[in-house]
Design goal:
By secondary structure, this protein is of the alpha+beta class. The chain has eight helices and six strands, in the order ααααββααβαββαβ.
Length: about 230
């Protein structure tokens, strides 16, 4: 009985029809679940993209396994290595920087890369790791999302986007920070595309005393010349 189970166990991890069906279904499941999580948050890469990435990675790894097993040539992990490095180009396309210097899509890019790695694990028959990896990624992207937000809100560091009256000196903002126990770590100034009378200012400030982000925004909003303000990631 043990021998039979061993044969079945090895057969579903190889390149048999049964193994190919299992690998295909598992790759579509893992990619689909991860893509659904990203898609419902309106991220650049969604349901179909993740399924394609995971399935494509599985196909590459299984093909490499076939070449190595049947033709006795090639390195069994060479094609998989190309996927790990090559997926970075696709992930980079999901990272977006807007006019306020906000960067979005990094988590999606990392998720895409991880989906490719899980596809490679499926392709070589390492089903246990791929299933564990699925739940780990879901925990990080969904469960720990609230922890991440909580830590950011409790942080004494905040990045502010301010639309400031261009007729006033920027030193007014610097002076306000100095007199109100703020340390300005970064300051960027851009000419507004909306009006020539407005300057777009991005500040990375650290409060020397404990106060919430809402309190920080309210204090900086009170500066004369500030027309609009918001916290950005």
């Amino acid at each position: 009985m043990g021998i039979i189970m061993g044969i079945i166990y090895e057969n579903i991890r190889g390149i048999s029809i049964e193994a190919l069906l299992i690998k295909t279904l598992l790759a579509l499941l893992v990619g689909g679940v991860l893509g659904f999580e990203r898609g419902r948050k309106r991220r650049p890469a969604g349901f179909r993209t993740f399924m394609l990435v995971c399935f494509g990675s599985m196909t590459v790894m299984t093909t490499n396994q076939y070449v190595f097993t049947e033709l006795a040539v090639s390195d069994p992990v060479r094609l998989g290595a190309q996927v790990v490095s090559g997926i970075g180009f696709l992930g980079a396309g999901t990272i977006i920087t807007n006019s306020k210097n906000q960067i979005s899509g990094i988590t999606t890019a990392a998720s895409l890369w991880t989906a490719a790695c899980l596809g490679l694990a499926i392709g070589i028959g390492f089903y246990e790791l791929s299933i564990i990896g699925l739940f780990v990624v879901l925990l990080i992207t969904s469960g720990l999302h609230y922890v991440d937000n909580y830590l950011m809100l409790k942080s004494r560091i905040i990045r502010l986007y301010i639309e400031f009256d261009s007729a006033r000196p920027i030193s007014q903002l610097v002076e306000f920070g100095r007199t109100n126990q703020y340390e300005i770590n970064d300051l960027q100034i851009k000419r507004s595309k909306v009006s020539k009378d407005v300057a777009d200012v991005i500040l990375l400030v650290r409060s020397s005393k404990k106060r919430s982000h809402a309190e920080m925004i309210q204090e900086w909003e009170s500066i004369e010349g500030v027309q609009y303000i918001e916290a950005i990631e």
